[in-house]
Amino acid sequence: MSIANPDELSFGQDLRQELARGAKSWLVTGVAGFIGSHLLENLLRAGQRVVGIDNFLTGKRSNIERVLALGENFAERFRFVEGDIRDPMACAEACAGVDFVLHQAALGSVPRSIADPVFSTQVNVDGFLQILVAARDAGVRRLVYASSSSVYGDCRDLPQTEERIGTPLSPYAVTKVTGEQFAQVFQRAYGLEVIGLRYFNVFGPRQDPDGPYAAVIPRWAASLLRGQPCRIYGDGQTSRDFCYVANAVQANLRAVFAESSATGQVYNVACEASTSLNTLFELMREGLTPYQSGVAAAVPQYEDFRPGDIPRSLASIAKARKNLGYQPTHDIRSGLRETMAWYAAEFSQGD
Question: Quick one: pLDDT at residue 287?
């Protein structure tokens, strides 16, 4: 798979045929973000019309520019609204004439929400509510939204299934639980078809490695390539069900085209495999060594556990397989190969 086009094989022939039936209009919220920009790329490659909204709080204008540069007529089929999802006018403008909404905009990070619970709630709850209202008023056919594995909280059941969640361990988790409830109410009360996707540690190219709230894989990739220490919070036995971004793209598109009987529900988006942080570090070190030989000598730096972190995540994707037809195309190893190659190429051009 080409690094220049990491999403080229993100979904199967059945989805290609569905998209080939004719161009629809799609709204991607958080379009300048990591997952949002991958959705934008796939939809434009499939001949669709896309509206994007972003305020560049965490997203990057360069992500949009990179995508639009990949196709001659991509810019002609893209309309951008620079605005905040907490602004009802901006949401109404973005939803006008749209068939489907893929809602990715959010203020992520458990530590960020602990540091500033009010701001996280304003963006993730109030902002989502404004998008729901705008989608309802615009007559949108279906809205697919990003939830999170954080909703499982202190639930000890493994694998984690959609029907049972625990007590939230962070304000971020509370915002995602609340969002799921709002979405389901909008389907019952207003007839807006909704599907929630509980992402499990999505990673891949274009994920921001910098800042205090960067996710572990991009942060470590940057640290290894810069010769800086990689911090592991705890003993390294904490594990996650890491999910490559191509799988998340596929899940969003399958959710849009799923039967109406699948709506009003939430689905895990993961790979059904849990990888410890110690193992993740070894895989990343191995993956980056061919690009920069000095990485081979790197060792992690262990620090105290962080509040709000769950000890282990492992998803069941049986429900998504059955109702959405979701089947991961990348596991942790194949996803990391793509991702490490991308970061190595980025840093070779200067970070």
Answer: 96
Tell me the longest C-alpha to C-alpha distance in the chain. Answer: 58
Which phi and psi angles does 158 have, rounded to 5°?
Answer: -130, 135
Residues 172/215, Cβ–Cβ less than 8 Å = no
Q: Collect all residues with Cβ–Cβ distance below 8 Å to 111 and sequence separation of at least 6.
A: 212, 213, 306, 308
pLDDT at 115: 93
Q: What pLDDT shows up at residue 349?
A: 66
b/e 263-292 (16+ beta carbons within 10 angstroms → b): bbbbbbbbbbbbbbbbebbebbbebbbebb
Spatial distance between the Cα atoms of 130 and 339, rounded to a whole number of angstroms: 34
Q: Which residues are catalytic?
A: 172
Report the predicted TM-score, pTM, of the whole model to 2 decimal places: 0.93
Q: What is the CATH number of domain 13-203+243-273+314-329?
A: 3.40.50.720
Predicted local confidence at residue 227, as pLDDT: 92
HSE at residue 136, side-chain half, CA atoms within 13 A, is 19
The type of residue at 171 is P
Sketch the domain layout of the chain as residue ranges: 13-203+243-273+314-329
CB neighbours (10 Å) of residue 12? 14
Q: Which residues are bridge partners to 50 per DSSP?
A: 26, 78
Q: What is the rounded CA–CA span in Å between residue 8 and residue 167?
A: 39
Phi-psi region of 103 (alpha: psi -120 to 50; beta: other; left: phi over 0): beta
Among 250, 260, 197, CA closest to 16: 250
CA distance 34 to 217: 13
Below-50 pLDDT ranges, the chain? 1-9
Instruction: Sort 199 into a burial class: Cβ within 10 Å, 0-12 / 13-18 / 19+.
Output: buried
CA distance 124 to 302: 31
How far apart CA 150 and CA 310 sit, in angstroms, is 8
